[in-house]
Design brief:
Elements (H helix, E strand, L loop, with lengths): L8 E4 L2 H17 L2 E6 L5 H14 L3 E7 L2 H7 L5 E5 L8 E7 L8 H13 L13 E3 L3 H10 L9 E5 L9 H7 L3 E5 L19 H9 L4 E5 L6 E4 L8 H11 L4 E5 L5 H4 L3 E5 L3 H8 L6 E3 L3 E3 L9 H14 L2 H7 L5 E7 L5 H9 L5 E3 L4 E5 L2 E7 L5 E8 L2 H23 L1
Parallel strand pairs: 2-3, 2-4, 3-6, 7-8, 7-9, 11-12, 11-13
Antiparallel strand pairs: 1-5, 4-5, 9-10, 13-14, 15-19, 16-17, 17-18, 18-19
């Protein structure tokens, strides 16, 4: 039984997920004696948290509740415990929820750790502590304050710039407005109250951030900042009100940090290599970036908005990224930095994967005549003027497509050919 995707467990909220939370708590409680738990703002998060804590306590683990906090805040708190558990579905819609398991260094549970939990849950081999071994749970106050202090220690403050901010009514609402104000920013905020009824699509994509782009232009902000539901992601809008592609943000961060190389995912732009950095490619998922950074490196991230600063934590930290982009924008107009980064037309999208297996697509994809192929994650076809990546989503029942090319015509041709291969395969299954 496979419970974990590329970023923990994520499912639609229902009785099955509630039952699973108790079982995951029981499974974790056997191996991890102290655990800190936090939640995002979803309406189902508190109920799911209580179910998981019940399992932890029943197995004999001591548990502390950090309340509503971003995932990177919880990851920082986990340093004082054997493990951390974040109740979140990150950028998924509000009807989803999930469970993300974290190590004390902020990294997500490894494949081996996940398999251990899955094995116990699948076998039902739960150990329930004796009555005199059952621990108590308690609150874990101050996690947000400690995260604030840690980030403020890296930035001088007195930034004196205007920031447009959209937390999506997610967990960043409890920290990012305070952080920016402490840094000396004038904050124009929208969607910065903690609520499980998200007012926009919670993933910080260009199509979901039209209000933030408009606000940035209208109020004359130096930068716009947006988060997803649990604030492990951060995306930006420049001073012209333009959405900044994650591939360009990747380079801007690396440049500001004087990083020697970049760790990023296989779906990042080919322009990253043209900036002169040594690039270390990984599978898609911030956990793979974090794993590679254990081998060394100052910075890593993925174009979806997950930025990992290993000097602080191996958990992607959208809060730290918000402070860093504000500091960058206080030194130079963000629009100038964005325009200086090379870029090519790039398309990202997804298709419902029902009835389609990735392996069944390969013969038709290979018929497109690629010069070479990578199977680091899914199937990536390289051509002399671009590339196409087709892979199964690790968080939703979808097939993801990414295409990049040197011209608009070519990128749409590659993307549309990928879509057609999937649609043709689905028709064959139906017939």
């Amino acid at each position: 039984m496979r419970l974990f995707g590329t970023s923990g467990i994520r499912r639609l909220w229902d009785k099955g997920l509630l039952d699973l939370a108790v079982k995951v708590g029981l499974a974790m409680g056997e191996a991890y004696g102290t655990v800190v738990v936090g939640t995002d703002t979803r309406t189902s998060s508190d109920s799911l948290k209580q179910a998981l804590i019940s399992g932890l306590l029943a197995a004999g683990s001591h548990c502390e509740d950090a309340g509503i906090v971003p995932t990177p805040t919880l990851a920082l708190a986990a340093r004082e415990f054997d493990a951390g558990v974040m109740i979140t579905a990150s950028h998924n819609p509000p009807q989803y929820n999930g469970i993300k398991l974290l190590n004390p260094d902020g990294s997500a549970f490894s494949q081996v750790q996940q398999e251990q939990i899955e094995g116990i849950v699948s076998n039902g081999s739960f150990r329930v502590a004796r009555w005199d071994e059952v621990k108590q749970s308690c609150l874990h106050p101050g996690a947000v304050e400690r995260h604030l202090e840690r980030i403020l220690g890296e930035f001088p403050g007195g930034l004196k710039l205007k920031v447009a901010l959209d937390c999506g009514c997610g967990a960043a609402s409890v920290i990012t407005p305070r952080l920016l104000e402490k840094l000396g920013c004038e904050v124009e905020a929208i969607n910065c109250t903690a609520s499980g009824f998200f007012p926009r699509g919670i993933e910080p994509t260009e199509s979901n951030l039209t209000d933030l782009m408009a606000l940035t232009r209208e109020c004359g902000a130096d930068v716009g900042i947006a988060h997803d539901g649990d604030a492990d992601r951060m995306m930006a809008v420049d001073d012209k009100g333009r959405f900044v592609p994650g591939d360009k943000l990747l380079f801007i961060f690396a440049q500001a940090m004087d990083a020697a190389d970049i760790v990023t995912t296989i779906d990042a732009s080919m322009a990253v290599e043209e900036t002169g950095y040594d690039v270390r490619w990984t599978r898609i998922g911030d956990n793979y970036v974090s794993e590679e950074l254990k081998n060394g490196g100052e910075f890593g991230g993925e174009p979806s908005g997950s930025w990992v600063f290993p000097g602080l934590s191996l958990c992607p930290d959208g809060i730290h990224a918000a402070a860093r982009i504000a500091a960058i924008a206080s030194q130079e107009k963000l629009s100038r930095l964005v325009d200086a980064v090379p870029g090519y037309p790039l398309l990202r999208g997804s298709i419902d994967s029902e009835g389609v297996r990735l392996s069944s697509l390969e013969p038709q994809l290979m018929a497109m005549g690629p010069l070479s192929v990578s199977r680091i994650d899914g199937i990536k076809l390289y051509f002399n003027d671009g590339w196409l990546l087709v892979r199964a989503s690790g968080t939703e029942p979808k097939i993801r497509l990414t295409a990049e090319a040197k011209t608009e015509t070519r990128v749409h041709q590659l993307y549309n050919e990928g879509v057609k291969v999937i649609q043709d395969c689905r028709k064959e299954k139906v017939s």
